[in-house]
Each structure stands twice: as C-alpha cells, then as structure tokens.
Fold this protein.
Amino acid sequence: MAKRKCDPRLGEVGLSPEVRTCIDSLVELFPMTPYPERITVKGGEIWDEGQIVNAALVNRSWLEVTSDVWDELLCGLLLCFMDEDAIAYFLPGMLRVALIGNPSGWISATLDLLMMHDDERRRNLLGHFNPAQLACIVEARRLIRLAEGQPDEE
C-alpha cells in the first residue's frame, strides 16, 4: 500500500522554510523520552477505547505516530481517554503531522478544542510546557491555521 503524502515518515519535501523551522523547533524543544508513564486516564484501560489508545501509543515516540494513527484516535474522540501527561507528550507529534499535512482535519479540530477553550484541562495541559515550548506551540498552530485558510488569532 502506498504511503500518503502526509505521512511524517516520508519527510518534509515541499514545505516552506517557515514550516521547516517550526518542525525543527518541535524536534529540538520537545524530548522524545521519557515516554509518559500512563497513556490512558486512570481506569481508562478497561474500556475498548482506552485499549485502542494504549495499543496505538504505548512505548512510541511522539515522532513515530503517523497521520493515520492520529486520524483513527481523534475521529473516534479517543483523546478523552488519554492521560493529561500523555496528551502533553504527544502534542508536538500532533503539531508536526498537522504541519506536514493532515487532510482529514482531525488534528486541527482537536488542537482548536485543546487550545481555544479557557478551562481547567487546557490550563493544566499548558502548564506542562516551558515558555520556549509554548511559543513553538503557538507558532505551529498559527502556521496550521494559515495553511487551512483560517484567520490568525491572537
């Protein structure tokens, strides 16, 4: 089966210098290890959805997770089964895949949900990151929205 253009394993051919710089920053600023201790929320592994999340992400680097995997998890709304530390760990991977190209739009929609609402979970999630990482997240989201023709938000 042919790999899709948006598969991060294909490389980043044809990306703008601005997007390449952002992807390089993600790789530089966000550690690959250690992996999160938990992938699912406490007790989430007993549900079928939690088992799907665990099977897709356990012992995997955020850099290894492809667009197809994110589509499966996000279109099934399985992010709600993920532990907060796991979401923080895998967020740069979601951003990277979306920057390379995620035609389904599930990653972008999920990022909007994570980043736009001012609720406790968002504050807790953003509390995992240092200022340089937060700046990189904001820039990645700006570039993703720009690629989708969405207005730039402050």
Remarks:
- The chain has seven helices and no strands.
- Confidence is low (pLDDT under 50) at residues 1-10.
- The radius of gyration is 15 Å.
